[in-house]
Amino acid sequence: MKELGFIGFGSFGKFIIPYLKPYFDITVFDVKDFSTEAKALGVKWGALEEVSGKEFLALAVPVQYLEDLLIQIKDFVRPKSLVFDLSSVKVKPVELMIKYLPENVDIIGTHPLFGPQSGKNGIADLNIVVCPVRTKKNGNLIRFFGQELKLNVLERTPLVHDQQMAYVQALTHFIGRAVNQMDIPDVEQKTPAYQFLLNIKGNLGQDSMDLFYTIERENPFAKAVRDQFIEELYKLKDKIEC
Q: Which residue numbers delimit the Prephenate/arogenate dehydrogenase domain (predicted)?
């Protein structure tokens, strides 16, 4: 069985690892001690140097911490290994991996377009974006995602990914965080449209602030979309109140 190192044992790591266990011998690391949780999931807990040296290496850390991590692990990464990130944005992580990882290491950017909430009933037929960067193995990884995990694989460039996700993710998470902080109520007189808002609140409003900041701050196109949305809100407000 192939060995997979997994750095970042947050909510997404704990969620996705059971799907990967049948195919990999997994060793995980996090800056926090989650060794008990790792044991409960049936995977190994290892030191950063050990985990970084596996044949396959997944980086599941917020983008704002990725550069420091890459500096720490660049001398431990095994030659001809495959390193892939799981970040919610792609331009910056790909640039950082190219900058810090040795040229004899394969690199692929990935973004699962789901999480513990949207994947709570299973991940089959959900979307994952793959950005081949510097690799001869992207075909194998795409086949694994599609044939074994039954995901719908979308191959994109990092630039196209971030342009689209500024709407798909940055805008929806911005709205989700707002309605969550408003704490909009679940009432008997709700309409289907209002239920959509409640669903957004439930699915997105509880995400960690690290994830929220990654989506809103690290996507180079997110600010323009947020600003446009806020501008349109003020225009509507002016029309109502004139």
A: 2-242
Tell me what the pLDDT averaged over the chain comes to.
Answer: 94
What are the structure tokens assigned to 233, written together?
């809100």
Residues 136 and 229 in one domain: no
DSSP-assigned states of every residue in 85-154:
E--S--HHHHHHHHHHS-TTSEEEEEEES--TTTTTT--TT-EEEEEEEE-S-HHHHHHIIIIIS--EEE
Q: Say if strands 127-134 and 106-112 run parallel, antiparallel, or are unpaired.
A: antiparallel
Is the model's pLDDT at 208 over the cut of 80?
yes
Pair 170, 92 in one domain? no
Residues 155-199 pLDDT 10s: 999 999 999 999 999 999 999 999 999 999 999 999 999 999 999
CATH of the domain at 45: 3.40.50.720
Same domain, 150 and 227: no
Confidence (pTM): 0.89
Number of domains the chain contains: 2
Cβ contact 9:30 at 8 Å = yes
Domain boundary residue, one of 156, 171, 193 = 156
Residue 227 to residue 179: CA distance in whole angstroms = 18
Residues near 227 by Cβ (< 8 Å), separated by ≥ 6? none
Domain of 76, in residue numbers = 2-156
Per-residue model confidence as pLDDT tens digits over 99-113: 999 999 999 999 999
